[in-house]
Design brief:
single chain; Rossmann fold; five-stranded parallel β-sheet; 5 helices; 5 strands; 37% helix
Length: 115
């Protein structure tokens, strides 16, 4: 399953169309997403926006990485917020895309690789 943390309905619709055929779980806030993660069968991939309702995507990353069962779950950040240079290395982010310039093929390549 792919967890998508996105609180913008337009982007949620975009992901539904683009990732049709994938098993997706959508969350508008990080607290609900973390609570829904099954430690015995974690998500294959997490697509994460930085600006969420409630805790930011950075807080979600920090929380995820605090659990040994979620340490290796690949995370893709898709956001309009600029990311600090060390965020990918610090949190094991496999890719980061800017919402304004991301091409559908960019995300599909990552999903194909990790999910």
């Amino acid at each position: 399953m792919i967890f998508v943390l996105e609180d913008d309905c337009g982007w949620e619709s975009y992901y539904r169309r683009l990732l049709k055929g994938q098993e997706l779980a959508f969350f508008h806030d990080g607290i609900a997403a973390i609570a829904a993660m099954d430690f015995d069968e974690p998500p294959r991939l997490v697509i994460l926006d930085v600006l969420l309702t409630g805790p930011t995507g950075f807080a979600v990353l920090n929380e995820m990485r605090s659990y040994p069962q979620l340490m290796d779950v690949p995370v893709v950040i898709v956001s309009s917020v600029s990311l600090p240079d060390d965020i990918a290395e610090k949190y094991g982010v496999v890719a980061a895309f800017d919402k304004g310039s991301m091409r559908p093929s960019d995300l599909l390549e990552i999903v194909g690789r990790y999910a």
